[in-house]
Amino acid sequence: MTKRQQYAQFCQNHPDLPIFFQDWYLNACCGPAGWGVVLVVQNGEVQGVWTFFQKQKMGFHYVTMPPFVKFMGPWLVPGKSEEQAGQILEELHQQLPQMADWKQDFHYQFQKPDFLQKMAYQVLPKYTYRLDLADLDQVWAGVNRNMRRNITKAKTQVEISIEADHELFYQVNRLSFERQGLKIPYSREAFLLHDAALAQQNKRTIFFARDQRGQVHSASYLIWDQSSSYYHLSGDDPALRKSGAGLLLTWEAIRYSKEVLGLPIFDFEGSMLPKVEVIRQQFGGQKAPYYYVEKNFSLLYRGLERLKHHFFYHK
């Protein structure tokens, strides 16, 4: 079998693999030819994998994070000793293709920064926020009092619906970027490919908050795997943000994750932006550390990147 075939089989045999590592998800987000994987096989069984997304510019090949994919990099079959895990990581690393630059966000399963430092990677700790959904009443009690009041108030102004209107969601999602003076970082076509794959696998729900006139105040996009749900994407109409519909949608996604999906963990999927991080904390989210890793293998590529950055910000 090819590596890709081995990996597809590995995904089927390990349904506990996070959604961001699933081959069908990577095909949708990166394109079938846009991502790669290396594997360590022992006694006929895959024991560890390392996924990556590859691009090219200025004649250089490099690795970065694709849209809609929160984590990439190594994933080891659980139950390994420290020594075994280290050996598997070493073998995986030796198989990685040569690139001019390497940037990835590793899954929080990976907690071996010493390995990365030994390999001369730059390592930056990052955080997502997670909720343990064992007791939903306890989760609600852990929400900031003012936040609970705003959620209750929002219930009097909007109603929540579940709709498969991906076009409408993209429009509302784009409004949030435009409000900040930013261009949405993925095309409509890329979003629709991503959405179609999730819909086919029954791994997404789209929520809308509408008022009595039918106006959409906010929208949110929840995805999940076997162990966690992820508050993947969201958007608000800037003219209607004061209703608090976005907060209500967040709570509805939490409730849905527990009561409908029966999942133990709700993951806010970032962000470390100060204003967003505060809201995650006010919902009672607990920090879960993961690592951003970077390594430059080409002095020429690094120089061209710095030159490009200089002209972009000083033109």
In short:
The protein is of the alpha+beta class. 39% of the residues lie in helices and 28% in strands.
Q: What portion of residues belong to β-strands?
A: 25-35%
Largest sheet geometry = 12 strands, mixed
Treating each run of at least 4 consecutive H or I residues as one helix, how many helices? 11
For the termini, the CA-CA separation is 51 Å
Dominant shape: globular
Number of strands: 12
Mean pLDDT: 92
The structural domain count equals: 2
- The CATH class of the largest domain, by name, is Alpha Beta
Per the CATH scheme, the topology name of the largest domain is: Aminopeptidase
Oligomer kind: single chain
CATH-assigned homologous superfamily of the largest domain:
Gcn5-related N-acetyltransferase (GNAT)
Helices and strands, in order, run as: HHEEEEHEHEHHEHHEEEHEHEH
Gyration radius from CA atoms, angstroms: 21 Å
Q: Which secondary-structure class do the elements indicate? A: alpha+beta
The CATH architecture designation of the largest domain is 3-Layer(aba) Sandwich
Helix content: 25-40%
